[in-house]
Amino acid sequence: xxxxxxxxxxxxxxxxxxxxxxxxxxxxxxxxxxxxxxxxxxxxxxxxxxxxxxxxxxxxxxxxxxxxxxxxxxxxxxxxxxxxxxxxxxxxxxxxxxxxxxxxxxxxxxxxxxxxxxxxxxxxxxxxxxxxxxxxxxxxxxxxxxxxxxxxxxxxxxxxxxxxxxxxxxxxxxxxxxxxxxxxxxxxxxxxxxxxxxxxxxxxxxxxxxxxxxxxxxxxxxxxxxxxxxxxxxxxxxxxxxxxxxxxxxxxxxxxxxxxxxxxxxxxxxxxxxxxxxxxxxxxxxxxxxxxxxxxxxxxxxxxxxxxxxxxxxxxxxxxxxxxxxxxxxxxxxxxxxxxxxxxxxxxxxxxxxxxxxxxxxxxxxxxxxxxxxxxxxxxxxxxxxxxxxxxxxxxxxxxxxxxxxxxxxxxxxxxxxxxxxx
Length: 423
Ligand code: IMP
What we know:
Elements: E1 4-8, H1 16-23, E2 29-32, E3 41-45, E4 48-52, E5 65-68, E6 73-74, H2 76-88, E7 98-101, E8 105-106, H3 109-122, H4 134-142, H5 149-152, H6 155-175, H7 183-197, E9 201-202, H8 204-213, E10 218-221, H9 245-250, E11 261-267, E12 270-272, H10 283-291, E13 305-307, E14 309-310, H11 311-321, E15 325-329, E16 339-348, E17 351-353, H12 360-365, E18 367-374, H13 391-404, E19 407-412, E20 420-422
Parallel strand pairs: 1-10, 1-11, 2-5, 2-10, 5-7, 6-8, 7-9, 11-15, 14-16, 15-19
Antiparallel strand pairs: 3-4, 12-13, 16-17, 16-18, 19-20
The protein binds inosinic acid.
């Protein structure tokens, strides 16, 4: 029995949803502890595609309990729609397999408007957010003016609190010449969502504590990736939560000493959505992957920026998260390349750099230094065993793992549950 934190070790979209789905064969509980519906986890089971934004991927396994923890920012309307969407595809979603923390903060309609307004006012310096209101919602949490899931349950006081927040945010919008919200127009949908969510709302901290005591196996499902972390990422081109391993503890109330393992998920190459420095970005590999119909965002549909594998970034992710094991996804994306580049270190103003600088202008000035590895020029998507992989593919995987300083545990060669090789 082990409690595992799964983190993205790059810029998000590492294929975490699929790996979590694979691992939930043994986990009894899956917890989301940060982020909101900016995340998009794609899982394909039995030919059906599911895109999950707020609900942990564990919902697709009968018998697995999913928890949306206190560290998440929850758009109540979006989660109610997601529940209905899953039910329409035949997935059971009941209080027996989904719990929502009463302490999670709410993403409310003004957060989305503020997110859009801030992005528009930044012009060329925009972050490229998902416009789901994530930054403003976490901003309210830290400023201690946010509303929480528990507030939804108290119909009258919720309306009063919302009225105050709407008036305050309308003033902010008006100062920018933007129209505000009318309370009476937004309230009914929020009240309907509150009623739909009421049976799922609970003190998840106490529940998880009891589960830990009962030695249940818990998987913490990270959203986004290490370099989008509010503290450790490429600030300000980041999201607003702690996407790194520590965030799983604060965002769920499970103490650090109850965690047994950290699994880092990486792509066999690198991608990033939105703006910000990306040292190994490469047009050729972007064109190749987009041409294969790959690397379009599951939340916004945006084409992801693509580049070579960056061992500098993953090594840093290793030390911040304490990564014990690695899962490498999308190996099959490299099947058609004769040679593959891997960045081993950077050069910054003539000096060798082994860890990414925290200042984003320095990171943008870093020049990646590459080694070249031979490709395997063989389709890998039908391979299910380590030994059956082409020798060059095994060598590539071993090399990126050793450069990253972690043990290789899983290789994924396609989006389906079965396309997974366990070492
Ligand atoms: P926000 O989280 O919507 O505020 O967006 C901030 C940055 O994080 C932008 O660059 C987004 O593209 C990026 N981002 C947010 N969520 C995800 C995700 O799930 N995968 C990849 N990038 C994300």
